[in-house]
Amino acid sequence: MTIRLLIAIVFCGCAPGQEFRMEFVPIAPGEFLMGCAPDDSPNLPDGIWSLCPPESKPQHPVRITKPFELGKFEVTQAQWVAVMGSNPSHFEGADHPVEQITWDDVHEFLLKLNARRDGYRYRLPAEVEWEYAARAGATDQFGGGSLRKSAWSGEGIGTIPESPGGTHPVGTKAPSAWGTFDMIGNVAEWVEDWYSDSYYKVSPVDDPKGPAEEKYHVARGGSWFSNARYTRVWNRYETVPVLKRRDVGFRIVRDPAR
Q1: Cα(182)–Cα(103) distance, rounded to whole angstroms?
Q2: How far apart are CA 89 and CA 97, in angstroms?
Q3: Phi, psi of 62 (to 5 degrees)
């Protein structure tokens, strides 16, 4: 599958004097194997040894039946401020990804975007859409690219509040084959689904939506703090909806409004 078209949208009327601009990459329908493959090497680029975790098994076939448009970049602090009016992020920078936002905060952001009625509906990606795009047609555990060249990661020492390092401007590492940036690094990303560590055993093939309501939601992708173990395209994190961390942000999907 070859995807080259890039879609940009500009809409004003956010905060006074501010322009809001986002870019989206169209993702075509298709099939892939989701989850950790039995032959994925446990020898990771930073010398860590890590086998497939149980929540990412078994690898199973999935079919995406509808096209969607995924944010080229993680949502930035400038975009968040333009819509929400304030910046919750610890690592301040207009072109850095917004962080320290809960799953509910993200939905408040989406509610305000959708209230503009610009012909599109904005939402978080489903977990299956996120991994499909992160793999970008590749079958390896880093989405077909070099971890060093495509992901801001490996900066963590100790705990997040004490660690050196931090977020980076979006789009400054190499893109995926499908034109998205920072899928497995910079910040981990909220997705829409609830979390179940046994869901892959019962997941349907066509457009799986995740389990019914559970205690946790899912975050995907590694971050600036993560080592290689946590930057693989199939890594899943059970995440409390009220979590605010310096290494968790999001990107969005837009669909034509119906």
Answers
A1: 19
A2: 8
A3: -135, 145
In this predicted structure, the answer to whether residue 98 has a pLDDT above a threshold of 90 is: yes
Q: Prior bond to 256 cis, omega within 30?
A: no
Go through the domains of the chain in sequence order and give each one's CATH number. 7-256 (3.90.1580.10)
pLDDT, tens digit (0-9, with 9 covering 90-100), for 106-119? 999 999 999 999 99
CA angle 229, 243, 246 (to 5 degrees): 60
Report which of 237, 247, 245, 188 is spatially closest to residue 217, judged by C-alpha positions.
Answer: 237
The CA distances from residue 33 to 36, 79, 91, 138, 208, in Å, are 9, 33, 36, 10, 13
Model pLDDT for residues 244-256, shown as the tens digit of each residue: 999 999 999 999 9
Residues near 144 by beta carbon (within 8 Å), at least 6 away in sequence: 135, 136, 137, 138, 176, 177
For the whole prediction, is pTM greater than 0.85? Answer: yes
